Queue: 4 jobs
Job 1
Amino acid sequence: MADQCLFCRIVQREIPATLVAETEDCVAFRDISPQAPVHVLIVPNKPIPTVNDVSDEDERTLGHMFIVARDLAKKEGIAENGFRLIINCNKHGGQVVYHLHMHLLGGHALGPMLSGGAHG
Ligand code: 5GP
């Protein structure tokens, strides 16, 4: 459907993506513009726009995303050295796609958490 967001369309396999995991509640696929050697997006099937829109009934799905992240980090060989999980929210958080998703980043040392400094 034309009014569906980009990640809804990937969830529904209307747009191709390199899937690396698929469960009953979410999919994971490689970011089209990777910011690290491993950059995977973990996306719930349910189109929750932002963290601000999370409801109590989403608790299990959101917890499940961490289980998928844990398993993928191991599968991608980055669990032991470490990795970063990021969920951006709205304008100041740098969110671009308004379908909640978790970034799994790793494969080399990722540096400071924020590039712009304490108030950058
Ligand atoms: P956000 O900034 O919303 O947290 O992250 C959105 C992410 O989606 C970005 O890292 C961007 O590179 C990725 N992205 C945008 N369009 C596509 C696409 O069509 N396919 C894939 N695989 N990733 C995308």
Note: The chain has three helices and five strands.
Job 2
Amino acid sequence: MSAKSPASLHPEARLPEEWQAVVQELGEAPFRGRQVFRWLHARGTRDPLAMTDLPRAFRERLPAAEFTAPLEVADVKRSRDGTRKLVCNLRRGGTVECVIIPMSDDPADDPDEADEDGGWDGRVTLCISTQIGCAMGCVFCASGQAGLERGLEPEEVVAQVAAAKLHLDANEHLRNLVFMGMGEPLHHYDDTARAIRLITHPDGLAISPRRITVSTVGLVPGIRRLGEDFAGKVGLALSLHAPNDVVRGRIMPMNKKYPFGEVLDALRKYPLPKRRRITIEYTLIDGVNDDVAHARELARALAGLRVKVNLIPMNPIEASELGAPRASRVEAFRDALAREGYGVSVRKTRGDDVDAACGQLVLKDRLREKARDRTKESKPCSDGSS
Ligand code: SAH
């Protein structure tokens, strides 16, 4: 956890035990801290005066000016497939997006959860962002090409969940939460871990860690810490995208720091509960990693790991020449993995008409700006994970 003192954190970034310390400073009994936490996170109330189970004198002593909303939903873009992208303006500056995806076909979704009649029972998956931009530089990803502006504060991550819940349609409920939006969640490990603690707290939004999936390019220390801190309960998705070091190194700069074999080792050590599997994400890129021979090599590399594979046909982005694979190759790739006994699914493109599909979450302006300044030398590969 970060070394910040409870008082210096935004009110919505404090855990109940940290709130206890703060209310004690204000001369109140510790249990009041948990009450304030509940108002903020379970009930979404930011006005101290409206926290009616607190003594009036205490409500008046709470520093109302600090109880600010971390973000405002500036726009909701609704795709023809029902996906909604929420454009969130952050109070501290900048914009991030999160995506509500009905009838999730995401990796956190287990086939055995499917509705019996094949109908839709209102379940949605929410995909949230952890950074503005991203430092990982994956060549097929718009966020990666935009570079990193800043990491989000824990309260900015939590606020996406709270805001999205308010934007659900009447028949919908939030089932899964995936850290697969803009940014690399394990780059700022402490902030992401704090956000998960806040989101899963029973006195707050109370989302079960088992319904959360964190997706990473493969920052080995972060994978280890996530496994330790949450006892393997938080779902893990690894963006592998290649069957070996050579291909991976071509499209993911981070592979230099954490090579293919080391990343798979980290997965082997992840304290995965029984009957759970790690998701391997594999973005299929035309002519780069989409050959049947790659599929066979991938099958060998993953032998012995408890994984399922989620194939993502690349969504083309402005900043790259790389393109979507041919449909016949996607099928052949999938079949080759299935023949080797892997659970494998092909992710349907959702929300691409509103630029909400994988890899498309980015401020277009920022990308254009970046393209203008781009020099010939390749971007340095930075990793702030600790
Ligand atoms: N940084 C994390 C989470 C964000 S990206 C990670 O890399 O896992 C979420 C997923 O979208 C990743 O698997 C990423 O590789 C994939 N993705 C990025 N750009 C894409 C694109 N243009 N088309 C398809 N998938 C893409």
Note: The two ends are 11 Å apart (CA to CA).
Job 3
Amino acid sequence: MKTAAKNASIKTITTHYIDGAFVESHGREVMDIISPTNEQVIARAALADEEDTRRAIAAAKRAFATYGRSTTEERAKILRALHEAASARLDDLTAAMVEEYGGVVQFARPIVESGVNAFLAAEQALKEIPWTRRWNKTTVTLEPVGVAGLITAWNANTLFICLKLASAVGAGCTVVIKPSELSSLQTRVVVEALHEAGLPKGLFNVVTGLGSVVGAELVRNPDVAKISFTGSVAVGEGIMRDGAATMKRVTLELGGKSPTILLDDAALDQAIPAALIMAFLNSGQACAAGTRLLVPKSRLDEIKRGIRDAMKTFSVGDPADPKTAVGPMVSQKQYERVQSYIRKGIEEGAEVLVGGEGHPHGLETGYFVKPTVFVNVRNDMTIAQEEIFGPVLCVIAYGSEDEAVQIANDSRYGLHAAVIGTDLQRARRVAAQIRSGRVVINNVTDDPQAPWGGFKYSGVGREYGRYGIEAFLEPKAILES
Ligand code: NAD
């Protein structure tokens, strides 16, 4: 029953955030927001049109005239104020991610925290950037690129908004944010929180609408100098192509099909749970999810037994329950996408070790899928090559260390990877041969100053820390004769 939107008690978000104020949407189209946990309409949101987008760009352009000349001390103060404002709403931000997206609370909380902390990390990074360099009669300064359009995906919308905003503001840019239209409730909480920071008008503007409308206007508009995008390869390609007409600078954070290499000296009682956590991160709807597990043929049987046992602790269910490891998929469309890949895997001859098609027993309502592990997977199968963006793990057996590296790199993607083994020197040697933007050794770990981004089809450019800020800067040289 998805018609509950007619119920007057349902909240409708009718405003966007432009020039420091919540303003009524010029766009009249309204979208239902559906809970992925129970399929009920929980809110509605007005979608912005091109006119709303142009107003937001104009506000950002006016603000850039002043903010573009700000000092790093002023930017540091702004980043600190944003951090304090966002921190004050940590519980609400987490609750919105659980309610609207179905993110499991055990993952939603740290991901929101990581967004909130991105402001502090950017403040720290300001100190490491060589803003001015001089030699002989030459002076090189790093200048903000201009108005930036920030476009986010639905799987960690709050994190992406905070992270991109932190980097842009740190660089001295003003921004127009186009959040995922599937994240309108979460966006509302973030914007209410950030509004409390009391920033100069127009410094950040937020217009929620469709990618083909708001996103396309940002990409086409000559007053936008840079697009920082997180989303799919197909849309990323379009942004690069269409942005060329106005010579846009682009940062593209795209998909992944990340390998986890389990070396033959790994301690399986720790290695298997670590590998499964990486595979089912954010219910498998994570660009970095380690969805290809490469295991030594010599230990295949014991690894299969270990996976079967460990999967018992990966419970599916209510995302608000702290014990739940895997929540629902974000939408019916995403549910069907995951089902179609599970079917494809079976058709191509992979064997279902755990999970399979359909809803888990007792969870027929809501977009729940069975966390699924395939074995007997060859790396050239569709399920090993394409990003599924759901809790589906492919176990691929390898003979030698060299073969493991070759399989890991045999992918159009190169975002993230993991190496698990007891001999650290050996794990480092393997990590050094993997062509991806990040490799973690032995477990998921993070460093907010380390770059994030992809080789190959996983994207262009980097985020986080000074790398993230530098993506919003242009070097400028002044030479005296
Ligand atoms: P998507 O590409 O469908 O949408 C992403 C954003 O782009 C949304 O805000 C959407 O409205 C907008 N958009 C759509 N068409 C557009 C257009 N023509 N012009 C401008 N903007 C447009 O992706 P999604 O389904 O929201 O997210 C899932 C994808 O994101 C996956 O492929 C995943 O791997 C990727 N992702 C990457 C990272 C990373 O850091 N590399 C992180 C999270 C998600």
Note: The first strand starts at residue 11 and ends at 13.
Job 4
Amino acid sequence: MAIQRVGILTGGGDCSGLNAVIRAVTRAAIIQYHAEVIGIEGGFEGLISGQTQKLTTRSTKDILTLGGTILGTTNKGNPFEYRERDTDGSIKITDYSDKAVQTFRALKLDCLFVVGGEGTLEIGYRFFKKGIPVVGIPKTIDNDLEKTDYTFGFQTAVQVACDAMDRLHTTGRSHHRVMILEVMGRNAGWIALEAGIAGGAHIILIPEIEYKIESVIKKIQYRKKGGSPFSIIMIAEGAKQKGGDTIKSETAEGRLQGVEKLGGVGFYLAKQIENKIDLEVRTTVLGHIQRGGSPNSFDRVLGTRLGSHAVDAAALGKFGTMVALKTPDIILVDLKDLAGIVRRVSIDSQLIHCAESIGINMGRKAM
Ligand code: F6P
């Protein structure tokens, strides 16, 4: 099956490498298949409004290294449950999915590349079931998608968090302080775990292991007694204390996005420990710095490979799929196998064993 005119959209939270994917899809579709490429703007919102731009090798030149997405994105634009604020401030929810399908048909596209994380790909799968030929491309700094070794954007976020750790080390050591770094990742601890190991953290707290505060305090005191009166703690935004709950900066109600927002656990932890030790505690929240800026070389290559392979999959008519990294290959997996699944760190994984075996406290052992 030939592809003549293809569409691409980027949905959900942005991350580094989106433009590398857009460039690869555009170039592969044009160079390999002489197809036209239409960029749909603002994620699925563009499928409702019909706002598009034609993508060419010229319009996508120089974007390989650029952060963000030239197509724009949105977290709130689920056409099946589109959330708008009414005049009285309440949230109105409308199903615009038929309208989105009509737009897709009116654009005369042979396929739609949906670049996104778990939420966006689930919407993509719902559109596939409504008859749109979809190929998914896995994106998220959280690295929490099933069936792929890595999502693009993750490694860059890890590097940013690792650089922050290096800086916290020098100031923490100078001042004899406990430095806490809170990173993103939602309910998965991948960023915290990998950046914590890479950045030489003494304590790493992730959502998958509920931490015991006594364990954290003991580790800090043990280090101080041993002649290291400072400690560096990496904590994932979704981490929680044993028997406690995740710390939310906003609840879902009243938010246009319709999902809870995590954040603040770093400050919560600081409060828990500062009255129990005689060291000062400082918290840094890294936030969206992990999502912005230029992708590292790993994410540039991964994004390019995923984009190129997605175009080949479309040309072969393999719809309802997602391109995935199964090292060393890019493979195709079914979108239906991803729906609603969040891939979290296994608490029995080699990675956690590795961390604990070199003395990193994961909030569950005596030291
Ligand atoms: O899913 C990516 C992510 O950056 C999460 O790690 C984080 O919890 C969330 O998005 C933040 O979302 P927002 O950009 O809406 O604040």
Note: Residues 206 and 239 are 5 Å apart (CA to CA).
